Amino acid sequence: MSATSVVELQDVLLVTIQGELTDEDAMALQEELTTNVARSSARGVLIDVSGLDLVDSFLARTLHDIAGASALLAAETVVVGMRPEVAITLVELGLTLPGLGTALTVADGLDRLNGSARRR
Q: Which residues form the STAS domain (predicted)?
């Protein structure tokens, strides 16, 4: 079972994902986020994946698509909280997340959106 929430933090949308998402859940999240970015004129989207044990190829593609749609609506997307095991699995599968920024924590993600993040 999964749960997602979208919270507005001034001009940034914070999305938290708890539990594994089905493909249908991922597609619904993409539609909800795109609508919310357009409605709120958000300049950034933070997607907290710290509650995920697995990111499969479909979810990775969906995250990429969310970033693409958000960029077309003038919002930058940053994935935060990726666990080391998830990052290793993505690399082993040859999956990359082009168009997505990454940060270790929500605070780091906000810093990145504000242009004050440390560049690694």
A: 2-113
